[in-house]
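Reading a protein record of the kind used here takes only a little practice. The record below shows the convention in full:
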Amino acid sequence: MPIMEYEPLYNAKELTKVLKIGINGVYELLSSGKLPYLLINGGKKVRGSDLERFIETYPVATRGEEET
């Protein structure tokens, strides 16, 4: 599967597909400040550049450090 270019903005539902996590996980990342967002017309939107930075800098687990 080829890597796709990022979109300018993502809503929470779109983030679930990109990050392959549930909606609660997305809102946890947003509310904790780990994933910055814009508040546009009352909705939370994540810039594609911020999403890419988040993915690139998220800590990588090494063998034996996986969560149980």
In short: The beta strands are 9-10, 38-40, 43-47. The longest strand covers residues 43-47.
